[in-house]
Amino acid sequence: MGTFHDHMGELHGITVVVRQKDGNTWIGRCHSEDAIEVILHDADQHVVSESDENPVDWLSRARQMGHWPRVSTIRIPRETVSALVRLSDVNQKGELPES
User: What is the pTM of this model?
Assistant: First the structure.
């Protein structure tokens, strides 16, 4: 029948967007999330200070064409996270839904 991962949380296996309080953004497949950390697999990051592209345009492009998985696994401390949403919930303009 398959392997069930109910203990991993509702976002397990879903492509998500993690916006950090410093404005940097991750996209990746969620492994798990709890009060301590968010763990993503096959992830890519947009670093505001290192990119000519703004985060909204980057998310819009990723929503349309997918992201490039540059990082195999990343553990993001929960205290640095300002938003965690499904990529499918990002609108066509690349804007995160209102909390």
Answer: 0.87
